[in-house]
Design a protein that fits this description.
The protein is built from five helices and two strands. Strands 1-2 form a two-stranded antiparallel ribbon. It starts with 6 loop residues before the first strand and ends with a helix.
Length: about 120
């Protein structure tokens, strides 16, 4: 088995030596970018604190914590008609979800079979 052999398919080719050359070039470029990067970073100083629009970080994290409900409020409010009907069906029981899955799959198979 020749490990440097080129594998030709109908859509292109694969050569491990070319892949290694591209990898080495990418690593050299990444190293050059890293060498010319910012070198004044100091861990454990003011630089490592999160930027909150110039405000100090509150002592209690929950004062600035946004839950998923806050983050997706507009989305859930816009689709409230859908969520009002679907949330009561959410039981958290896996067998209920499987029943829904198989029921909808059976309905789709019947519909596709009729078309």
């Amino acid at each position: 088995m020749d490990i440097a052999a080129t594998l030709t398919t109908g859509f292109g080719f694969w050569n491990p030596l070319i892949w290694l050359a591209v990898l080495v070039v990418a690593l050299v470029i990444a190293y050059i970018i890293w060498v010319y990067g910012e070198s004044s970073y100091k861990p454990g100083t003011e630089q490592t604190k999160p930027y909150l629009s110039g405000n100090r970080e509150p002592a209690a994290k929950r004062d600035v914590h946004l839950g998923g409900g806050h983050l997706y409020w507009g989305f859930t409010e816009a689709l409230s008609g859908y969520y009002d009907r679907i949330v009561p069906l959410h039981t958290g029981v896996l067998t209920d979800y499987l029943l829904w899955f198989f029921g909808i799959a059976a309905a789709l198979i019947i519909i596709v079979g009729l078309i």
